[in-house]
C-alpha cells in the first residue's frame, strides 16, 4: 500500500534503521549489529504494540524529523529530548499518535546520545540475513537515512500499550563498566592491568557504532608483536598500538589482531551507547559469573 | 589446547596451528549439528576457535582441553573453482619477492589448493591458506583507498578475494568475476570456513 510509508524530512547527524541485529554469522565476517541500546529499542516497540525485534530508527544526538503518509502511533525513547507533533509538544517515552501528513519532530538529545523511534508496524525495509539493521562496518542493511528517504512501514501487530509513560534509565553521568580480565591480559604489564582498573578514562569523541573509544592512560604491552587474528566478542576491550582501550559495540569486526585485555559485561553496554564524549569511564574488575 | 575464558559466556580455544584450528572447527560444527553443543557463534581464526554464547563455558573448557582433536578429513568439502586473470598491479612486486617471473608466480598460485581458514574483514572475505611459508609477502606500505571487488590479493601467508570495493593493503595479483557475497543467495558467502578453493587461470596464463 503506497501510503504505508514514512518520509524522512530531516535525517539528523546519523539516523539508522536498527533491530536486534543478525547474530550467528560471525564466521562469515558479518557483525552482529543491531540497536546499541537494545532495552530502549525493545521498550519503544512495546509502547507502540510492536514485537521486540521490529525495526526502529536509532538517532544520534541531533534527532530527526519524520512525516508519515497515514496515521501511525510512535514512541520516542533512549536519549531524552523534546518531541513535537505538528509543532505542538508531545510526550517522550510514551505512545503518541501522529496523524497522516503531520510532522513528528525529535529534537536534539538533552542527555545521552542515541534516541529510538518506534512506529506502529515497524520499519519494513528488506531484511538481510534475517535482520533489517544497518551495519556501518560492513555496509549490510539500509544505508544511513538522508533527507527525503522514504521508508516502508509494516502492518501494526497489536494495539499500543495502555500507558502514559514508561520509566527509562537516565544516561550515565559516570560510565561504570564491569569487566572480566582476559583473554589476552597476559599480553600487558601488571601495571597496565592496574591502570585499566584503577585510573580514570573518558569517552573519546571518536566513538561510533563500532566501538567506544577512550582517552586515558596508555596501556603498556608486556609482549610485543602481532597476535594472529582471533574471534572478537561484543564488549571486548581491544587495545590498539596507541594503548587506549576500545570497547567493541554492535558493529564491531568479527575477527581482529589486537589483544583483548578484558570484556565488558553485556548488561553495561547500553549505558556505554548513551555516554557522550567526555563522560568519565571506570573499568571495574569483576569475577566471571 | 588451551581454553581461555572470554567474558561470561564465551571461550577462546587456542591450538598450535592453523590446521588444528580448522580440524577443531569441523569437530565443533559436527557437535552443534548433532545437538550436543548449543552456542550462538563458532568463529575459527588463525590459531583459535571462538565459542560465543555458551550456556556452560566452564564445562566446555574442561571437556575441550582434555579431548584430542581428530585430524580433519582433507577432502571433506567440495572444491570451489574461481576463474582468475593474473593481471593485478602488484603481480610484478610479488614475483620479485618470490624471485620468479610474473608468469611463474601465476602458475605457483594457480597450482595451489587453498582452504578457507577463516573469514573476517568484510562479509564473505575468506583468509585462504595453502601457499608454502616461503611465499608469504608483506602488506603494501601504503594501503590503497579503494581495491576493486573481485581483486585477488596476498598478505602474509594468506590469499583473499575482496567481495566488494573497499580500502585495503594487500598485494593485488589478479581479478575474478566470481560473486563472493550475495545476501539473496544461500549461503550468502561463496567461501565459508573449511571450503577448498582453486584459482583457474583464464586465457593463456
UniProtKB/TrEMBL annotation, chain A:
<protein>
    <submittedName>
        <fullName>Allophanate hydrolase</fullName>
    </submittedName>
</protein>
<dbReference type="InterPro" id="IPR029000">
    <property type="entry name" value="Cyclophilin-like_dom_sf"/>
</dbReference>
<dbReference type="InterPro" id="IPR003778">
    <property type="entry name" value="CT_A_B"/>
</dbReference>
<feature type="domain" description="Carboxyltransferase">
    <location>
        <begin position="27"/>
        <end position="289"/>
    </location>
</feature>
<dbReference type="InterPro" id="IPR052708">
    <property type="entry name" value="PxpC"/>
</dbReference>
<keyword id="KW-0067">ATP-binding</keyword>
<dbReference type="GO" id="GO:0016787">
    <property type="term" value="F:hydrolase activity"/>
</dbReference>
<dbReference type="Pfam" id="PF02626">
    <property type="entry name" value="CT_A_B"/>
</dbReference>
<keyword id="KW-0547">Nucleotide-binding</keyword>
<keyword id="KW-0378">Hydrolase</keyword>
Automatic annotation (TrEMBL), chain B:
<dbReference type="InterPro" id="IPR003833">
    <property type="entry name" value="CT_C_D"/>
</dbReference>
<keyword id="KW-0378">Hydrolase</keyword>
<keyword id="KW-0067">ATP-binding</keyword>
<dbReference type="InterPro" id="IPR029000">
    <property type="entry name" value="Cyclophilin-like_dom_sf"/>
</dbReference>
<feature type="domain" description="Carboxyltransferase">
    <location>
        <begin position="1"/>
        <end position="191"/>
    </location>
</feature>
<protein>
    <submittedName>
        <fullName>Allophanate hydrolase</fullName>
    </submittedName>
</protein>
<keyword id="KW-0547">Nucleotide-binding</keyword>
<dbReference type="Pfam" id="PF02682">
    <property type="entry name" value="CT_C_D"/>
</dbReference>
<dbReference type="InterPro" id="IPR010016">
    <property type="entry name" value="PxpB"/>
</dbReference>
<dbReference type="GO" id="GO:0016787">
    <property type="term" value="F:hydrolase activity"/>
</dbReference>
Amino acid at each position: 500500500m503506497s501510503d504505508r510509508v514514512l518520509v524522512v524530512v530531516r535525517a539528523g547527524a546519523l539516523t539508522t534503521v536498527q533491530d536486534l541485529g543478525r547474530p550467528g554469522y560471525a564466521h562469515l565476517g558479518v557483525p552482529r549489529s543491531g540497536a546499541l541500546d537494545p532495552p530502549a529499542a525493545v521498550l519503544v516497540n512495546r509502547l507502540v504494540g510492536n514485537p521486540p525485534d521490529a525495526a526502529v530508527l536509532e538517532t544520534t544526538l541531533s534527532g530527526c524529523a519524520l512525516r508519515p503518509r497515514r496515521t501511525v502511533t510512535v514512541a520516542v525513547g533512549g536519549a531524552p529530548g523534546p518531541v513535537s507533533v505538528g509543532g505542538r509538544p508531545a510526550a517522550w517515552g510514551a505512545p503518541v499518535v501522529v496523524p497522516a501528513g503531520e510532522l513528528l519532530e525529535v529534537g536534539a538529545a538533552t542527555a545521552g546520545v542515541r534516541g529510538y523511534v518506534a512506529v506502529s508496524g515497524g520499519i519494513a525495509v528488506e531484511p538481510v540475513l534475517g535482520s533489517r539493521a544497518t551495519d556501518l562496518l560492513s555496509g549490510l542493511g539500509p544505508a544511513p537515512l538522508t533527507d527525503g528517504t522514504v521508508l516502508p512501514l509494516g502492518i501494526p501487530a497489536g494495539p499500543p500499550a495502555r500507558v502514559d509513560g514508561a520509566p527509562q534509565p537516565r544516561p550515565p553521568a559516570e560510565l561504570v563498566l564491569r569487566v572480566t580480565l582476559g583473554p589476552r591480559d597476559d599480553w600487558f604489564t601488571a601495571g597496565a592491568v592496574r591502570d585499566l582498573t584503577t585510573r580514570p578514562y573518558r569517552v573519546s569523541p571518536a566513538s561510533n557504532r563500532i566501538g567506544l573509544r577512550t582517552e586515558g592512560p596508555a596501556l603498556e604491552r608486556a609482549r610485543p608483536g602481532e597476535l594472529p587474528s582471533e574471534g572478537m566478542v561484543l564488549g571486548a576491550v581491544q587495545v590498539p598500538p596507541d594503548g587506549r582501550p576500545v570497547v567493541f559495540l554492535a558493529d564491531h569486526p568479527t575477527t581482529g589482531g589486537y589483544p583483548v585485555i578484558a570484556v565488558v559485561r553485556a548488561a553495561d553496554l547500553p549505558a556505554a551507547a548513551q555516554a557522550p564524549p567526555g563522560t568519565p569511564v571506570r573499568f571495574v574488575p569483576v569475577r566471571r559469573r | 589446547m588451551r581454553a581461555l575464558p572470554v567474558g561470561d559466556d564465551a571461550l577462546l580455544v587456542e591450538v598450535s596451528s592453523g590446521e588444528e584450528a580448522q580440524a577443531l572447527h569441523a569437530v565443533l560444527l559436527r557437535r552443534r549439528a548433532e545437538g550436543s553443543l548449543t552456542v550462538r557463534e563458532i568463529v575459527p581464526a588463525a590459531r583459535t576457535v571462538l565459542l560465543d554464547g555458551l550456556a556452560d563455558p566452564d564445562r566446555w573448557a574442561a571437556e575441550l582441553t582434555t579431548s584430542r582433536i581428530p585430524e580433519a578429513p582433507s577432502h571433506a568439502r567440495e572444491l570451489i573453482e574461481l576463474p582468475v586473470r593474473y593481471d593485478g598491479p602488484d603481480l610484478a612486486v610479488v614475483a620479485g619477492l618470490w624471485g620468479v617471473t610474473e608468469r611463474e608466480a601465476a602458475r605457483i598460485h594457480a597450482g595451489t589448493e587453498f582452504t578457507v581458514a577463516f573469514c573476517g574483514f568484510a562479509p564473505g572475505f575468506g583468509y585462504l591458506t595453502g601457499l608454502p611459508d616461503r611465499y608469504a609477502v608483506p602488506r603494501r606500505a601504503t594501503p590503497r583507498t579503494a581495491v576493486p571487488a573481485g581483486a585477488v590479493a596476498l598478505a602474509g601467508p594468506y590469499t583473499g578475494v575482496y567481495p566488494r570495493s573497499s580500502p585495503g593493503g594487500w598485494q593485488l595479483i589478479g581479478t575474478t568475476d566470481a560473486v563472493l557475497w550475495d545476501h539473496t543467495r544461500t549461503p550468502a558467502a561463496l567461501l565459508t570456513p573449511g571450503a577448498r578453493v582453486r584459482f583457474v587461470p583464464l586465457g593463456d596464463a
